[in-house]
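Lab notebook, bench 4. The sequencing result for the construct came back, and we need a structural model before the next group meeting so we can plan mutations. Quick request posted to the team channel:

Model the 3D structure of this chain.
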Amino acid sequence: MRNKFPILIFLILFVSSSFAQFDTSYVSLTKNRFSVYPISELHSTKFKLNFNKEFSESYEDVTIRYRAQNGLYMGIGMSFYRIGLAISFKLPYTNIPDLKYSTAFSFAGGYSYRKFYGEFKTKHYQGLQQETIQFVDEDVSSTFKINHDIETKQYGFNLYYFKSNKYNFDANFKNYNTQLKSAFTIIYAGGLNYYSFNGQLDINSSSEQIDKNIEVRTLKIIPGVAGSIVKNNFYFSSITLLGAAYNYNILDYSKIRHNISPVVEFRAVLGYNNNNLFASLNANYDYDFMLLRHNNLSIHNLMFNLKVGIKLNSKYLGKLGKYL
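Done. Here's the predicted structure in token form:
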């Protein structure tokens, strides 16, 4: 019992500090406010596949790079009390005729409680543009072919714990509360994510095609740091996370591989925020690498997000706050 007593004390202190209220000299907590705002986003999502002869009998090694429908997305966002969400779609305009029949969709939603922030996000692309293809001992060749039947999906749930009660995620990235002073904190994060890449891939100019199905389920552990610099309601904040993920991979519906892979996440925001209005420019980047035995799949997601809005006072909606 004596050996367990220090562990019990540690758990009590950890739980009590986790649910402690913020230091209000650093964070101004917004009450009874609701905001809906337009969102303008620039998306860049790239996929890199590297396969050996398991993939194609014609080549010892082949690397194919794809990109999704990069460009301007428009959407709408909302923040209220502990809840925030954003949804965006690719604008139908494109100078590539084949891409007019493809689709792209992005959604992110989150819920925060004291030092915790939980986030669910998804991206869905139907139709990818093949950028380059490279064979072993050969130069990279550009193809720029549109593959309509390739479909990719990403689903993820991540939970973040910010150690300091002087830094608030809502204030810096959801623009609901207000960060009054500069603050820094250590982050502990984890997540469950799912990726799928399905479709008929073109290997060469002679129209060799291979049907490929890749499914990856990951468990992430990603510690990091966050900080915010504040001056007269203008602020800059960033979050950097470096960690690893355990991957459970399914190839072509049957082949199963297990591996550990690196994970990188980065967020940064520059903006203005007070109790009545806000404007912010966000940059989000994440990198996931899946080692599928001799086959590799890496995904790069980069997004720039611009939003401007006001915080509306609503006593009726404010009554819902105690239930959230």
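The two ends are 39 Å apart (CA to CA).
Will bring this to the meeting.
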